[in-house]
Every structure is written in structure tokens, then in C-alpha cells.
Amino acid sequence: MGLVVQKYGGSSVADAEGIKRVAKRIVDAKKNGHQVVVVVSAMGDTTDELIDLAGQVSPIPAGREFDMLLTAGERISMALLAMAIKNLGHEAQSFTGSQAGVITDSVHNKARIIDVTPGRIRTALDEGNIAIVAGFQGVSQDKKDITTLGRGGSDTTAVALAAALDAEVCEIYTDVDGVFTADPRVVKKARKIDWISFGDMLELASSGSKVLLHRCVEYARRYNIPIHVRSSFSGLQGTWVSNEPQGDRKVEQAIISGVAHDTSEAKVTVVGVPDKPGEAAAIFRAVADAEINLDMIVQNVSAASTGLTDISFTLPKSEGRKAIDALEKTKERVGFDSLRYDDQIAKISLVGAGMKTNPGVTATFFEALTDAGVNIELISTSEIRISVVTRAEDVNEAVRAVHTAFGLDSDSDEAVVYGGTGR
Amino acid sequence: MGLVVQKYGGSSVADAEGIKRVAKRIVDAKKNGHQVVVVVSAMGDTTDELIDLAGQVSPIPAGREFDMLLTAGERISMALLAMAIKNLGHEAQSFTGSQAGVITDSVHNKARIIDVTPGRIRTALDEGNIAIVAGFQGVSQDKKDITTLGRGGSDTTAVALAAALDAEVCEIYTDVDGVFTADPRVVKKARKIDWISFGDMLELASSGSKVLLHRCVEYARRYNIPIHVRSSFSGLQGTWVSNEPQGDRKVEQAIISGVAHDTSEAKVTVVGVPDKPGEAAAIFRAVADAEINLDMIVQNVSAASTGLTDISFTLPKSEGRKAIDALEKTKERVGFDSLRYDDQIAKISLVGAGMKTNPGVTATFFEALTDAGVNIELISTSEIRISVVTRAEDVNEAVRAVHTAFGLDSDSDEAVVYGGTGR
């Protein structure tokens, strides 16, 4: 029995009852002989309430102070969780990110972890304690200021601690049963995935699956820390994310892991760009200088008669205004005709390492969409993913059609054999 | 223009509007050329809400975790205050007790400050910042755990920082105009005291005056840091507490500084104690072993016929049960008759360094109580204080009678000349 890191999100510790329920689960792991490190998020809506308070005193809160404010949230939940565990007769100590040795850069509100020195956690464990650690926060290496890690930060804290402590698994507890072959709210027949590789999980995460964030999975893959995503409300096995299937059973890699969709993006088209070297570069430099991350990028073949081409890309809707402003400033220099902005789009992605060696996948994907009457506007592929952009209104039908076409529906006889039972 | 430390209590920063109001006041001090360090308490009822949450997860919260929890309160208020100041165009940085170098012992929930190493505060000031520091909290020297300082802790933080930074004054902002000659809720004619010595303030604080706690005044006297108690809701001068009157005017020490009362105590009488050496000691050892602080102690002259005496003392009502239990256990050994417990008492104290050299004070005090028909049950005196215990129901009348008798009423022609105008 080794060391496990467990992470509980805000919905699992939303109130005193939730905290007591989670405390019992933690104590169970300890009773099973594990050393247990728990990473906890702020309770329920605490973070939103703190953000609201900040807005009341300052329209643009300073980054350093904003981080100081937000980190109060985990401080509350972790102290209460430690109390609840001690009330069950087990020793527990809570630690801030700083005390746990989570060292970050100085980029407030979205700091990156650059080192983890969990000496105090190790000592607490060796003394028989359950260690409770504040998620989402750290301390900057140069100024010793409190930082926060941004979206999904608590998951990243958990994986980083698991890596630094050489944990046998990082359990991410959430309010769903695991990672599904598609969003169960859209596809009723979506199935829980028992095991998925880091590579496929990364593609799903960057294609709109919300259960794990890309950043956390990437960290886990780099240090080869198995992640077990599961519900804090049930005792069920969830989804294992790792290099190899867990447990004794040797299982075959699934051809297709799942279908993800994303309606948070918009499409920008730069119309009538002179097809000369350097023009596209100038456009993307302008967008990059505005610190906007693009997703899909497609350049049409230029029309021979005009020597002009169109360049389209997708980006988060929240960045749309900034991108348009940045591009307008380059219009004279680049000499394009116009800009089109379209936020009524959806992205549908098919992910699976098996598609590398199964040439029929792309054809099946497009046929399914065609049969469903869904028009494809952009296409982008990687070795283990195909993504298309469609009209937003078609997204649910498109996801269901693709899910069925690849035999992913839970009651389908054609179901691809899925990996392992976990353990 | 030197360095000032300002402390704002929870009622001054109860909501976003309060925080913005306080921010303006802080910026005014900065504009006047001061270096400004601000110590802030948790917002309004935050601490009570956190205590309530703790009670929901554990009937007896662990000290270490309880401190971790409570310190979230100041974290929120200090970050918001720093944001509000920055929003007014001035630089501000917030610091936890640990970051500010407030080093304490390891007694959770009521830690004592044992050192202050404000290196980061000094740096922040030198860089032109206003430094905002979390009151009430520190970090333990041995284990580096977060501690809280107990009741009145934020005032103590402020005075300790003022001493460590060699501030010219420690301003304690509160929701009253200063220290009064009596509780204004009881004595309508009570007057604000312009200046009071550390010694008299210490006696008032230990006699029931709530504005400053004994501990904070004692710290200020030891390091000779003038305290200015004033309202955060007005621009008025408040009460200066120092060794010597502030400002240019030489003023006379008042004979009487004020009248304090306290209804939070109870009286225990041990009846029929054998009047032999060691009996009283055994009684007080039992109480001390239960970690109960006694206040007044009176031993009656023993009756020659019986060789028995009665011993009475007062103590906080909250300690009553514990004291009775401890004493019951000694009954056999000490051989006393019985215990009496009376929580319907009040203590009335007259404080003033002038009484040392004014022999009529005691007589005037007792005459005033007699004229008001108030019966005296216990008497205890120090060089600069006389305290009596009366029935609780008589307390308001007794305080008013004494206040008037010593010419303290605000419209009285006989008013004792009071010290200074502050500045």
C-alpha cells in the first residue's frame, strides 16, 4: 500500500455535510493502509463570491492582491476538512500551497508550477498524519508572493504533488462518474471510459471535454502519474488515465476513445489576403502579439485568377474582440479585403490513437456527418484526432451521429472493446 | 513626517463601502507625507461565520486547524483593502502575519508575540508602498504553523509592528470616538478623554473598559509607543494614550481618569475554611491548576470562636463551572464547609493616578455609593484604582453616582481639568 493523492473539487465540499462525507472517504483510504495526501478546492461558490467582492472595491483588481484574496477560499475548506477528519479520530494537518512547497513563477492569476518541495508534507505523513493541501495556489520563487494557478489549478496541484511524492495514483474526485465517450448531456448512450491513454485524454481535453484540463493531463504524462477520475458521491470505479492499462488484464487499445464537442469558439476569416510569402505570418504575428491562442487554422488554396486567398482560424469567443482589433490594425500593411467574425459555430472532434492504423476512420466520420445532414466548414487533423467545424445548431445531432457510427453507444452490439476494468 | 501604523477593526471594514471609505483615509495619511502601515481585522461577522462553520464539522475543532481557518478572514479584508487603495492610484501590498514577520509561540488560538521581523514591510515601504498587514495572526517560531493571537489580537499586532518599525504613533480606529470617562451607554454625560497615561489606561482596561485591551496597552507601554484611539467614521481627534501628554501644551495629570464597570464576572465564596497556614494556598493552587485567572480576592478576618474564615474571589463567569469543579475536589483535603456561587454581581472601578496624592478619593467614592443606596460586598485597591463589587442590578446607578461625584460629567462646573488637546 503506497501513497495516494486525492483531489476534491468545490462541489464535493460545498457545505459542512459535504466536508464530513469527504472526510469519511479519506479516512477509509487511510484505514486501507495508504498514506493519504488530499488536495482540496474552495467550497462551492466561495471563489465566485470573493471575485464579486473584489469587483465591488476595484474594477481591475491587482493580480497580486487578487491571488491573496482568492487563496482564502482553499484556506477555509482545507482547515474544515482537517477538523472533520480529526473529529473521526484520525490525525490530519492542513497546509497552504506555500507550506506544501508548491513553487511557481510570478504570473499572478495563472502561475505555472516550476518546482514542488513537499518536505513538510513528507514529515506530516511520516508522523502518521493525513495531509490536506490547498489546491490552486502556490508561492512565487523570486518574490515569495502568493500566486494562483488559474483554471483547473487544483487538479494540477494534485498531479504535481503526486509526482513530487512519487504517489502510486492521483485520484481526481468530481461530481461525475468519470470520462465519457461523449458528453452524457448530449448523448444519452455515452459510456464511461474505463481506461484511456494520456495521449487520447490530452486530445479530448483540448477538444472540449471538461472533466480534466489539458494542463493537468500533460503534467501527469510527463511524470507518468496514473490519474483515476471518479465520483465523490459513489464508490464506483471511474476512468483511469495512464500510459498503460492498470491492473492484470491486458487490453487492446480502443480505436476510438470518444467524441468531444466545443461551442466556446468563434471563427475569424481574413478575406482576400495577397498570396505572397510573409502575409500569413504578419497576420498571425498580430494575433500572437495580442496574446491570443488560436486553435484550428485553415488557409484556402488561392484563386489563380486573383492571387488572393482566405485564411480562417478559430479562437475562444472571449478573445474575439481583441483579435479583430489587432487584425484591423494590420489591414493597411497586409492589404487584405475584409474580416468576417462568426460565433455561431461548433467544433466536433473524434479522438483515438487507433485511427493511425485504421484508414477507414476519416471516411466513416464524414459519412456519418453527411448522413445527418451536417455541413462541414473547416477540417483539421492530428495523428489521433479529426476535428471539424459546423454550425452551432447542428452540434448535438452531429455528435450523436458520430457516436453511433463508431459503435460507441452503450447498448450497441458493435461496441469497440474497451480497455480494462481498472482495478 | 514619520511612519504611522493604523489599525482598522472589523466594523470599519464590514462591507465594500466600508473598505473604500477606509482606503480613502489611508491614502490621506500617505498624501500627508507619512509612511503608512495598516493592520486590518476580518470584515464584520466573517470570524463568527467561520467559527460557526467549524462547529458544523467538529464539536471541538483542533487548535492548529482552527487558526488556519480563522486567518482566512483577514486574508480577505487585507487583499480587498489593498485593491481599493490601488484603485485610488496609490501603491499597496498586503501581507499575512507570517509574511509581516509576526513570530509567536505555539499556543494556538491565543498565541503570544515573541518577535517581530518586519523586513518585507520595510522593503515595501521603502519602495513607496502602503503596507497592509493581517491583524490577529502570526506564525509559530518552532513549527512554522499559523497561529492566532486571541481576543484583541489585531490591536496587539498593530502596536507590535509600530514598536518594531519605530513608528511615531499607532492609531487604533474603531467605531467610537475614543476612551470615555465611563461607558457612554450608561452615563450620558460621559466625556471623551483627550489624553490618558499608560498606567491609568491599563487599570481601566482590566476593570471592564472595552475600547483597548490590557495586553495591547501593556505592549505599547513597554516599547513606549503612543496610541491614538479614534473613530474611523469621523475626522475627530480621539484619545491619546502615552507616557506623557502629546503636543505642545503642558497639562496636568487628571486626579481621576474614569469609572469602569464590569458585569462579566461571578463571585465564588469558600465558606468555613480552617484558618491555618496553607489552606488558602491549597484552594488557589486548585484554581490555578485549572488554568483560571482570578481577579479580586478577599479573605475575611476569621472568627475567633470558630477558627474558621471565608475566602471570596471573582472570576469570569465563563470559568465558573470549571472553578467549582476544581474546588469540589479539594473539599475533603482542605476541610471547608461549602461553596457559594453568585453570578449576579458587578464590579465598579475608579481609576486615576491622582488618587495616590489625594487622600479624600476613597472617602468620596464610598460616600457616593452610600448616597445612591448601593451596598458594597467586596473591596480591592491598587495604588491608582479602587474597585468594589455590588449587586448587578445596582451597577448603572452606582457608575452614574460616582461619575458625578468626581466631577466627570461633561456639563459639570466642577470638571477636573483634563490632559491636552492631543494634536
TrEMBL record, chains A, B:
Alphabetized UniProt keyword annotations: Amino-acid biosynthesis, ATP-binding, Diaminopimelate biosynthesis, Kinase, Lysine biosynthesis, Nucleotide-binding, Transferase
EC number, UniProt record: 2.7.2.4
One biological process term in Gene Ontology: homoserine biosynthetic process
Pathway involvement of the protein, from the record: Amino-acid biosynthesis; L-lysine biosynthesis via DAP pathway; (S)-tetrahydrodipicolinate from L-aspartate: step 1/4; Amino-acid biosynthesis; L-methionine biosynthesis via de novo pathway; L-homoserine from L-aspartate: step 1/3; Amino-acid biosynthesis; L-threonine biosynthesis; L-threonine from L-aspartate: step 1/5
Binding sites annotated in the UniProt record for ATP: 7-10, 174-175, 185, 210-211
Catalytic activity line of the entry: L-aspartate + ATP = 4-phospho-L-aspartate + ADP
Keyword RNA-binding assigned: no
Binding site for substrate: 47, 74
The ACT domain, residue ranges: 268-353
InterPro entries: AceGlu_kinase-like_sf (IPR036393), ACT-like_dom_sf (IPR045865), ACT_Aspartokinase (IPR054352), ACT_dom (IPR002912), AKii-LysC-BS (IPR041740), Asp/Glu/Uridylate_kinase (IPR001048), Asp_kin_monofn (IPR005260), Asp_kinase (IPR001341)
GO cellular component assignments: cytosol
Molecular function as annotated in GO: aspartate kinase activity; ATP binding
Family note: Belongs to the aspartokinase family.
NCBIfam families, per the entry: asp_kin_monofn, asp_kinases, PRK06635.1-1, PRK06635.1-2, PRK06635.1-4
Function in brief: Catalyzes the phosphorylation of the beta-carboxyl group of aspartic acid with ATP to yield 4-phospho-L-aspartate, which is involved in the branched biosynthetic pathway leading to the biosynthesis of amino acids lysine, threonine, isoleucine and methionine.
Protein name: Aspartokinase
